[in-house]
Design brief:
Length: about 170
């Protein structure tokens, strides 16, 4: 992904699409945090710390560092799943957080940008998670967005009948 990337105004439009995700109980179990260019170096240090903590080589550390500069726009996706809402169990809240992420990415695609969610083990690294999350929140992924430098690979499954069927409950 290369420049130009979505502006802050375009990111706000994509967030409004994300806000349309199905949300049982309107719990809003997610939020998004933009990483501005001026903070990329700080993020790079945290990525490097993760690589060192998991025993990475100098090369691994350098690769992780570089990832903080990927994509002209970078947005952290944070889930905040309430564990004790009887009517809305955690899996439904995860569906909402994921649906919101998909709406966000698709909105950016419709604007002509490439956008992709990337996570990896580092999202669970305490130093990194803590800098984005408050108590009870989890860092899910980073959405990297910009102008695609090459065509995305086609999906392996692109046939609705692979996943769409008719229910035959009366025959059971
Ligand atoms: C929460 C989340 C985290 C993801 N993390 C990664 C990742 O770390 N690495 C990766 O290659 N794809 C990851 N993906 C998948 C990509 O975002 C993308 O969907 C996948 O590479 C397929 O690309 P396509 O959507 O263009 O077909 C993740 C997806 C989600 C929803």
């Amino acid at each position: 992904m290369v420049a130009p990337g979505p502006s802050m105004a375009e990111l706000r439009v994509a967030v409004r699409a994300a806000l349309r995700a199905p949300d049982h109980g309107r719990l809003l179990p997610w939020r998004a945090v933009v990483v501005p260019d001026g903070e990329r170096e700080t993020l790079a240090e945290l990525f490097a710390r993760f690589a060192r903590d998991v025993g990475g080589t100098d090369e691994d550390v350098a690769i992780e560092r570089e990832r903080a500069f990927n994509g002209p726009a970078l947005v952290a996706w944070v889930a905040r799943i309430a564990p004790d809402v009887p009517e809305v169990p955690p899996h439904e809240q995860w569906m909402c957080a994921g649906g919101a992420l998909a709406n966000f990415v698709n909105a950016l695609h419709l604007m002509g940008y490439g956008a992709k969610a990337l996570s990896g083990r580092k999202c669970r690294h305490p130093a990194l998670a803590q800098t984005f999350c408050a108590d009870g929140e989890q860092l899910v992924a980073f959405v990297c967005a910009g102008t695609p430098a090459r065509r995305p690979a086609p999906r392996v499954v692109d046939d609705a009948d692979e996943v769409l069927s008719l229910w035959h409950g009366s025959r059971a």
